[in-house]
Design brief:
The protein has 230 residues and is mainly alpha-helical. The protein has six helices and four strands, in the order ββαββααααα. Strand 1 and strand 2 (10-12) form a beta hairpin.
Length: 230
């Protein structure tokens, strides 16, 4: 199989094209960046790199937003350093901060290891990242909708409770007004009948007084005329 070189403008091949290798590369063993360990899945391999060698390639790629070519440069740079110094990455934890010169050095677009299946699998990480982003976006959207719904429900319940309290106050006020009106009617009725009783009593008293006065007048008039019975 011929060696492949890369450029950001496309793939440069000598005898075969990328599409011709796809089936073979899907089942190819991918070698660890720091040791002889291999795996057929890039996710599994990078999990090994994280757990065993302390370098989280996936997290670094995501946080620094490394594109496909920068990711390839990271892999080829580590492979180059490891080929020159086999204990590279084992004596000190390797990390990428995003300011390293090799991230933009096209020298590291050329595979450091012939037929490096890991380079061909980096696009799988792109797909995994896209799916993860979609899942995260969907989860965030669902959570936001749930939060909005919960907020709306809370506001609605609070509004219902406020209306119930307002209705209860109005009911109590209405009962109080009805009670006051009833008491007022009873007072007016009582005062009315008491007035009638007072008027009747006054009329009776006046009549009695008139009768007494008439009798006195009658006897006094006879007494003045010296009328005596024989």
């Amino acid at each position: 199989m011929s060696v492949v070189s890369y450029s950001e403008s496309g793939w440069d091949t000598q005898e075969e094209r990328w599409d011709d290798w796809e089936d073979d590369e899907m089942n190819a063993e991918m070698k660890c960046l720091f040791c002889a360990h291999t795996a057929q899945n890039p996710g599994v391999l990078f999990e090994h790199v994280k757990q065993t060698h302390g370098f989280d390639f996936v997290k670094t790629r995501r946080e620094l937003q490394l594109d496909f070519y920068q990711s390839m440069r990271v892999v080829n740079y580590i492979r180059t350093m490891w080929l020159n110094e086999t204990d590279f990455g084992t004596t000190a934890a390797f990390e990428v901060k995003g300011t390293e010169a090799f991230l933009n050095d096209d020298q590291y677009l050329k595979p450091a290891m012939e037929d490096d299946a890991l380079l061909y699998a980096l696009d799988e990480l792109d797909l995994d990242d896209d799916e993860s982003d979609h899942v995260n976006d969907a989860s965030a959207s669902a959570e936001a909708s749930k939060t909005t719904m919960s907020t709306s429900e809370s506001e609605l319940l609070a509004r219902v409770r406020a209306l119930e309290q307002q209705l209860e106050r109005q009911t109590c006020e209405t009962k109080a007004v009805v009670q006051q009106f009833s008491e007022y009617r009873q007072m007016v009725r009582r005062q009315f009948y008491e007035g009638l009783d007072d008027a009747a009593a006054t009329t009776t008293a006046d009549a009695d007084q008139t009768e007494v006065c008439s009798s006195d007048y009658y006897f006094n008039s006879y007494a003045g005329n010296d009328i005596h019975m024989q």
